[in-house]
User: Fold this.
Amino acid sequence: MITKGFSMTVADVLALMLLAGMAVWVFYNVIVMIKSRGKRIPSGRDPPPEDHFISLIIPMKDEESVAERVLQTLINLDYDRYEIVVVEDGSTDRTPEICERFARRYPGLVRYVKGNKSMGKPAALNLAMKQARGDIIGILDADSVPPKDLLRRVVEALVPGVDAVQGWTHVLNEDENLLTKLQSYEEEARFRSYQSRRKLGLFTPLTGSCQFIRRGVIESLGGWDENALAEDAEISLRLLNINARVEHSPFVETWEEVPSSIRKLFKQRVRWFRGWVELVPQALKRLLSRRDLISLDALMVLSTPAELAYLFLVVVLGAIFFIIPMPFISEAVRLAYKATSLIFLALMTLLGTLLTVLIRIPGKILWIPAIYLYWGVQSTAALLAVLQSVFRWPKKWEKTPKTGRTTLGSVPRDFTLKAIGGESRGLEAEEGPRSGPSQSIT
Assistant:
């Protein structure tokens, strides 16, 4: 028999806890965004106080569609003291051939490190670290297309006292289709969120590419955790534990490809989300021991996939409550879920409508259903990631395939056509400006 009045069943309590947890997360993040408004951002344009030798590590596996492009771009960077360490493992295409060709043509500038078997990105980074000579270690993905002054901007940001710099990654194939356009807006919102946290002195996570860390700091941490699915978030949490200072600079930037199909996006996000979810216990442990705001913020950031999964359940349950009475749930709780579902759906419709009005592209009416589809893909990926983590499904580090496609409107004007061309060009087309002997680390 269901009790009336203010008495609650176990199901009521669980349902309200789910709703309350989601509400707290949303409220917290809104407060962070509001509090960060008006905070000054350093210009990042002061003369560099330190001179660094930088090792750029580029992990590669089956990257023949982008390998030549990224290497051709990196050998032309406007900086004197750097090297490119390409670490490749387990490729079944022409990636090793391309890497070997560049290493032969530019000895001392391009170094080719070959793994014996496919190990995953964290293990590849550790392998490359053993060969790297720089006092600053930079990580770029194989599809990166940075501006020529990337490394000059890095040394401007790495002032004394700064242990790591995270740059901004923009979408290289933004205009390929509606899915890539949505991801470009998501990326912009994500990096703005991280910058808001930086301005408030909160948790500043690394994002896996366009990140630069002092070598001594990485070595003090023992390198990257080879069991981590999200090695960037995992090392970010360890950087926080040693009170390392991580700067988030919009002046350090690169352009990269995002998945252009739902299938690729879903697989990528499941891996990312599971990697984050598995760090939540560590973040919670830190919060309980230190009880400070930055620890709370780290927990809020890393629990984002769980909150996405919770929101999905709330919306689905709210829709179910409109159809099925569910007598074991009190009427008040059912009403709360229904209201949350309606508010969320209204906000999504408003967002899709605004995009339809503001963005002048063909087929813009598709923004409204696309917003729902995009949210559904992200939320189901988050839910699957949470379930995989809870039930300890076997881990598998899977890379996101790259196509090498670009949309010219997505990249800066000063990029050469050679750098952003969709097809690889042979080395014979252009002699590199540097050779090995000029790359001194002394």
Remarks:
- The chain has a mean pLDDT of 85.
- The CA atoms of residues 356 and 366 lie 8 Å apart.
